Each structure stands twice: as structure tokens, then as C-alpha cells.
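ugh ok fine here u go
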Amino acid sequence: MSKKQQISAKWAKEKQAVRATQVAFDLAEKVQHRIRKQAVQENLTPSDYIRKTLGLKISARPKRLRLSVSLTPDDMLQLAERFGLTADDRIAIKQKAAEALIEHAEYLKHHS
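structure:
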């Protein structure tokens, strides 16, 4: 396959991805909680679990499941103060926050 054909094939896939439609489901809180909980138990994202439940294909490549949170500048300042760091040391704040989450997860493991 020539380089031009490879690029064309790549853009065809990109076009297909652009045509995908985001669908949001307005479900009861208990239903959403059950779906999220089951997704976690099956090591899937909620989106992949929904696709599986609806009989759709899911990506075969493993995903790195991550927790994320949006932090405002005020949040960063508050965390910096909590951890005894400067607000511009974002990497150290992230590391300390990760350590706090790990510690919390260990606490939950022993107290749940």
C-alpha cells in the first residue's frame, strides 16, 4: 500500500469517527449507579459497558482506566496549602493527591 493510500485509509477512519454521535441517557440515579458499578467490576468504562449491554462492539485494545477531576486555580492553591507545596508545582501536587487517594482507598478496603 502506497503512502498516499495509507493516508487516505487513515482519513477514512477519521471521517467515520467524526460521524459518530454522542448519546446521553437520562436514567434514574440508581440505574446509573448500578451500571457504573457493574462497569467497574468488569474493568470496563461505563461507555464500553453500555455498548456491551446493547450488543455493540467494544474496542479490543485495553484502556487505561483513570480517575480524573477538574481543578480550578483555587483548588490547586488549596491542595498546595494542604500538602505544603507551592501552587505552581503541579506535578508534586498531583503526586501528593494520588498518594492521598491511595491512602483513602486502603482505608475503604479495611473499613467497608
